[in-house]
Design a protein that fits this description.
Blueprint lengths: L1 H20 L7 H6 L9 H11 L1 H32 L13 H20 L4 H13 L5 H28 L7 H43 L7 H9 L6 H14 L2 H36 L1
Helix pairs in contact: 3-4, 4-5, 6-7, 7-8, 8-11, 9-10
Length: 295
């Protein structure tokens, strides 16, 4: 039994060796055509775009950019069409039973995206409920922030169902009269305006707390020592004769940086990142503000 087992194992090993030594056939036309993506390297930008569009917020931002971007392009296309007709000698009303074909297509796309965004927001009340539960169990750092977020949550709890009922009734799904639909649209827009206005106050309070944290950090730890790269950059402009001395000083400075300085630098970096996030949110809400006034 042992001899037969060893012979069978040796034969299988030999067969496997023959299969490995067999030359790989060249790729066929079907392999090159269907497997053309083997020539494409992994792309980090594509991965980030997929992660961004996989979230509800990212998809809504992409749709919003397309929707309002098309509204900026439509007047340009319409004006271009009118100028072309005038130059051709046609002085009639250019938009009657015609107009710019591209402008009409973009207008239909903008309307379709607007419907899709409202439809996607029908379930938006669910994360609002979760958010209100979280802020009652994990309070914001100050009472003004807590009250702002409470009012924001209640405004969204009323806004989402009002907008959903107005949208569905506008498509003859719910039996709501046209005057009541207009009232629902009006009050939903007002509730959204309340949220946007309170978010600006929220950012003001966030900035106040950030400044307090910065002053407290300055009093307790001070500012971190410059990094070795900064020391080299400062020394590079003072002549080539002192370059070696500055490099040696930078090396000694790097060795003298202790854990406390590393922690201090990390704390200041966190404050800088928070400051940039507040500025970014400020620009976003300032962009929402004219839309809110328009609605």
């Amino acid at each position: 039994m042992s001899a037969s087992a060893s012979s069978s194992s040796s034969s299988s090993t030999a067969a496997a060796a023959r299969r490995r030594s067999r030359p790989v056939p060249p790729p066929t036309l079907a392999d090159r055509t269907l497997g053309c993506f083997s020539n494409v390297a992994p792309n980090e930008t594509l991965d980030r775009l997929i992660r961004f569009l996989s979230s509800w917020s990212g998809t809504d931002k992409a749709l919003m950019l397309t929707q309002y971007g098309s509204k900026l392009i439509i007047p340009i296309l319409t004006l271009q069409h009118a100028i072309r007709l005038r130059l051709a000698g046609n002085k009639g009303y250019h938009a009657y039973k015609g107009g710019s074909a591209n402008a009409r297509r973009l207008e239909k796309l903008s309307s379709l995206i607007g419907d899709a965004r409202v439809l996607f927001r029908i379930w938006g009340v669910l994360p609002m409920i979760k958010w209100m539960i979280d802020i009652e169990r994990h309070h914001p750092p100050t009472r003004p922030l807590h009250m702002i977020e409470r009012i924001q949550g209640w405004s969204m709890l009323l806004y989402c169902p009002m907008e959903a009922v107005a949208y569905l009734s506008g498509h003859s799904i719910l039996p709501v009269s046209t005057p009541n639909q207009n009232r629902l649209w009006l009050w939903s827009c007002r509730l959204w305006a309340v949220y946007v206005g309170l978010q600006l106050l929220h950012l003001v309070e966030d900035n106040r707390l950030l400044r307090l944290r910065a002053r407290a950090l300055e009093r307790s730890r001070g500012h971190p020592t410059p990094a070795p790269g900064e020391l080299q950059a400062r020394g590079s402009g003072k002549g080539k004769t002192n370059l070696s001395e500055k490099t040696g000083a930078a090396g000694e400075e790097e060795e003298d940086v202790n854990d406390e300085q590393a922690v201090t630098r990390r704390l200041w970096d966190d404050l800088d990142e928070r400051k940039q996030a507040i500025i970014s949110q400020l620009w976003v809400n300032l962009g929402y503000l004219p839309l809110t006034i328009h609605w």
